[in-house]
Amino acid sequence: MSNIPEGLQYTKSHEWVEQNEDGTVSVGITDHAQDLLGDMVFVEPPEPGQQLAAGDECVVVESVKAASDVYSPLRGEVVDINEAVVEGPELINQDPYGEGWLFRLRPEKNGEQEELMSAGAYRELLESEA
Amino acid sequence: MLIFEHSRSGRTNPVQAPRGEAAKSDIPQRFRRRHRPLLPEVSEMQAVRHYTRLSRQNYAIDTHFYPLGSCTMKYNPRGCNTLASLPGFLGRHPLAPTPTHGQGVLACLFELQEMLKQVTGMQEVSLTPMAGAQGEFAGVAMIRAYHESRGDEERAELLVPDAAHGTNPATAIMCGYKVREIPTDAAGDVDIEALRQVAGPQTAGIMLTNPSTLGVFERRIHEIADIIHSAGGLLYYDGANLNAILGKVRPGDMGFDVIHLNLHKTFATPHGGGGPGSGPVGVGKRLLPFLPIPVVGRKGGSYYWLTEQEYPQSIGRLSAHMGNIGILLRAYIYIRMLGAEGIERIAEFATLNANYLMKRLAQNGFEMAFPERRASHEFILTLKNEAKQTGANAMDFAKRLLDYGYHAPTTYFPLLVPECFLIEPTETEDKATLDGFAEAMSAILQEARTNPELLKQAPHSLPVKRLDDVKAVRKLDVVWRG
Amino acid sequence: MPFIPHTADEVREMLALIGAQNIDELFSEIPLELRLRESGKLPPALTEMEVGRLMQERALQDSQPLCFIGAGAYEHHIPAAVWEIAARGEFYSAYTPYQAEASQGTLQLLYEFQTMMASLTGMDVSNASLYDGASALAEAVLMAVRVNHKSKSRRVLMPMTVHPVYRQVVRTIVHNQGIELVELPYCTECGNTVPDSLHRFADEDFAALIIPQPNFFGILEEVDLLTDWAYANGILAIGLVNPTALALLSPPDEWGGQGVDIACGEGQPFGAPLSSGGPYFGFLCCRESHVRQMPGRIIGRTTDTDGKAGYTLTLQAREQHIRRSRATSNICTNQGLMTTAATIYMALLGPAGLEQVAACCHAATRKLVENLGAIEGVEMQFDRPFFHEVVLVLDVPVQPLLDRLAQQQLLAGYHLGADYPELGNALLVCCTETKSDDDLQQFITLLSEAMADLRRSRC
């Protein structure tokens, strides 16, 4: 079973969301998602400053045999992207919840968001899909 | 070794190059090349030996059974190659005047158009698309031109089954359409209820293959045609699987408005290591005015090109001349050698071979994706249980098959079936070859159970072992730099 | 049965295993009302000898005239070894090299092809070929629009000196994506695109400028000035080049201060017979930074599990079979077999041989031009540097002249009247290295006789 850390929130489309102290959130893809896609070879990040609505396709991640979109879990503005994963996409495979984060977002107040799940709920989702 | 590594500065092949002092001083210096390109400097024999050796590192239909599903790797008759390569055909300039220097080739092309109309049940055919994907493009562009000509510009959506070949959605986008996927039901047919719900005034049409990429005949094709036509859309037939139904049922009779054919599949023209293909399109009445040009016409016993003048609403031209004529000639010769009866036998024996091999593999314990269905000319088996039990997946089975002297079937397509093999034996293989393949599959299954590592490390007997395709992307090396 | 190996016994055994009475039963899932009741009206089967006879007759009907037409398809000598090897079954009857380990021959050859084309154009990378020159140009336009993020428009500058059919093909392929082609007029005195004429576009937004070299008239464009103008205005430069000419002319990578972004063209001069227009192949090269937006197959070198070098399809996630509706193009194949021939052609000629071919083509055309003085009523339309193709203006109408010469087995050139009516009685004539001094003399003799006759009959 894949690693699903407590304390993060999850989406049905296999993104994770971490609330940062400065009010921004970090977003990446889950261990399950990276395992499914295989060895990452390319990441196309959003532009800093880009406005995203919840559910927008905002990152493309590619492995040798698959290309997959990452969806923004929240409405907000992109404040930072992880240049390190653009340089070394394998970071997503090696450390999906740490070094392999994709971008940071400043959520809009009262903006709509995708349904976010706890670690337990996400684990149940994966078990039901298996 | 690369050809460049055989190269030595100053070695030339004077007999290959033209004779003569060639002055070029009238070309001003600012236009001239300053240093020579990195082309190899090798003798004729070195070149011949190098490329002959390379050829021997390929699997090909001429050397190996090649059951690559959806690709129809049937035998490419030698006669087609020899006769299409007669000097009169090879030497003809595309702009040579047709009244004096072109009646021979145009007669062949005109008759090919007529024969393809016969076997597809369409009203008219244009031979110009240079590959299946270009034929698809032409077909969808015609659908768009049709709707636009009627002022019906709200139709922004093209329906594509989720099992479809990747070119279908890619083509729809190239033609400016949005793609909506239609699910497949458990028996492998298009989900008719889902189709009913999405077909409407925004529907431009649907792209279908029949038999589908799942290797089964779409039984409710008439209902599908009714739903789409009553919504005002058109039906596009992807000819990838025409080999399964030649002489049995025609796309035109199933209600399709436009089709493309793959001559390199159904009509035995060579695959050439990935082309040249040829993808003629056929149309029903509604799309007739939009055919890509040129088309061959006949008046009073002589042949000529039909162009913008005869087809003012044409979607236009797709190639600088008129497509891959050398390939069209091969298909023409092939059909002439088969005749009406021979064409009908293609579907019969392709289907016989597929059903036989499916049964043999099922008896040997392999799981079929649609066991209750008849195979068309191809079928799908899933190795998901084997993968779970042994750890060796479909890719590992495929690589091990290479060691046994078989080209691997299509793997991981269609995406709907996990760990799948799409197997298409074609009509040109004999029973013993199919038996040998079935036995090899069983032997590999045994190996997977006792020594899965053998599969995971396969192939063992080819010029290279398994290649690192992750490295090929991460450390991109597409040009030799010495 | 033609190309079907089954014996009657085998068919019986196979049906027995399947559990079917006869072959017809295997089609039971096709609704009966759809089944074809009678065989189609195809002609009866012929033996190889019979169809051989038919094809011989038809090939002879097209005869083999002396041909001075170029206009995008060029008659060159093809060394014998080229097709002796390319037609080997191992190349001829293989498919797209999806199973890399069983396709190293094709894959390594394509890697060598990419290397040769990149070097010839001077660009960083090349793909493994496209359908033909015209469709390669269309793909280059689509690619440029994807790459040029600075441009908000989907407009592309298309000189009228680009092959007229190429312009039509590009329009067919790109217009459904809302791309607008803006035509650039040319100078009817000089036959080229005048760099100064671009200044009026300076304030407009374009994604790309196409630069043909040589252009359709054979005239050399001021590629340095055109490329620099594009660069200065944030417009991508697409070089459309003849590969034979590149042995003499500066590679697109060196045009102007920066070079072009994409170079493409028709590969036919490299080993593909004229064959009425196909199969040929297109090539497309670009800067490394644009490689992810490149359409078509690309081969990469990597290593196997023993660390040995090997070759495989790479960057596949751009392509339709993975990306589906988000692919860079719907293209599946390249023109593998034509590319195989081209690679062997380049290897046999080498840098010196290819330069000799280009120089001899040009020298033959030059010689023809110098001898035109012998004919009354013929002049060069443009007095500018050219490569192996020229526009002649005649004092007689072109079509009747060409018809008459065709009867005498001379194809004297391509009539420009339909595409460029402003040029009057204009004929595009090309010589390659295949034209001997005798051929040139025959051209001069027959042309001057025919023109004299036409003039007489008009009086």
Task: Give a short synopsis of this structure.
The complex is a heterotrimer of chains A (130), B (482) and C (459). Chain A has helices spanning 31-37, 83-87, 90-94, 119-129, and strands at 9-10, 15-19, 25-29, 40-44, 51-52, 57-63, 67-71, 76-81, 103-107. With 130 residues, chain A is an alpha+beta fold.
List keywords for this structure.
heterotrimer; A: 130 residues; alpha+beta; OB fold (Dihydrolipoamide Acetyltransferase, E2P); 32% strand; B: alpha/beta; Aspartate Aminotransferase, domain 2; Aspartate Aminotransferase, domain 1; seven-stranded mixed β-sheet; 13 strands; 37% helix; 11% strand
Topology:
The complex is a heterotrimer of chains A (130), B (482) and C (459).
Chain A: E1 9-10, E2 15-19, E3 25-29, H1 31-37, E4 40-44, E5 51-52, E6 57-63, E7 67-71, E8 76-81, H2 83-87, H3 90-94, E9 103-107, H4 119-129
Chain B: H1 44-55, H2 78-84, H3 87-90, H4 103-120, E1 124-126, H5 132-149, E2 157-161, H6 167-174, E3 178-182, H7 192-198, E4 203-208, H8 221-230, E5 234-238, H9 251-254, E6 258-260, H10 263-266, E7 281-283, E8 295-299, E9 302-306, H11 325-363, E10 367-368, E11 379-382, H12 384-390, H13 394-403, E12 410-411, E13 420-423, H14 431-450, H15 452-456, H16 469-474
Parallel strand pairs in B: 2-3, 2-4, 4-5, 5-6
Antiparallel strand pairs in B: 1-7, 6-7, 8-9, 10-11, 11-13, 12-13
Chain C: H1 8-18, H2 48-61, E1 66-67, H3 80-86, H4 89-92, H5 104-121, E2 125-126, H6 133-147, E3 155-159, H7 164-174, E4 180-184, E5 208-213, H8 223-232, E6 236-241, E7 262-266, E8 282-286, E9 299-303, E10 309-313, H9 320-323, H10 336-371, E11 378-380, E12 389-394, H11 398-407, E13 410-411, E14 414-415, E15 426-430, H12 437-458
Parallel strand pairs in C: 1-13, 3-4, 3-5, 5-6, 6-7
Antiparallel strand pairs in C: 2-8, 7-8, 9-10, 11-12, 12-15, 14-15
Structural description of this entry:
The complex is a heterotrimer of chains A (130), B (482) and C (459). With 130 residues, chain A is α+β, with helices and mostly antiparallel strands. Helix content of chain A is 22%, strand content 32%. Chain A has helices at residues 31-37, 83-87, 90-94, 119-129; strands at 9-10, 15-19, 25-29, 40-44, 51-52, 57-63, 67-71, 76-81, 103-107. In chain A, the strands form two sheets. Chain A has a six-stranded antiparallel β-sheet. Chain A starts with 8 loop residues before the first strand and ends with a helix. The model of chain A has no long low-confidence stretch (mean pLDDT 91). The radius of gyration of chain B is 25 Å and the shape is globular. In chain B, strand 5 (234-238), helix 9 (251-254) and strand 6 form a beta-alpha-beta unit. In chain B, strands 1-7-6-5-4-2-3 form a seven-stranded mixed β-sheet, with helices on both faces. The termini of chain B are close together. Chain B is built from 16 helices and 13 strands. Chain B has two domains: 80-338, Aspartate Aminotransferase, domain 2 (3-Layer(aba) Sandwich); 347-469, Aspartate Aminotransferase, domain 1 (Alpha-Beta Complex), CATH 3.90.1150. Chain C has helices at 8-18, 48-61, 80-86, 89-92, 104-121, 133-147, 164-174, 223-232, 320-323, 336-371, 398-407, 437-458, and strands at 66-67, 125-126, 155-159, 180-184, 208-213, 236-241, 262-266, 282-286, 299-303, 309-313, 378-380, 389-394, 410-411, 414-415, 426-430. The longest helix of chain C is centred in the last third of the chain and has 36 residues, at 336-371. Chain C has twelve helices and 15 strands. Chain C is an alpha/beta fold. The termini of chain C are far apart.
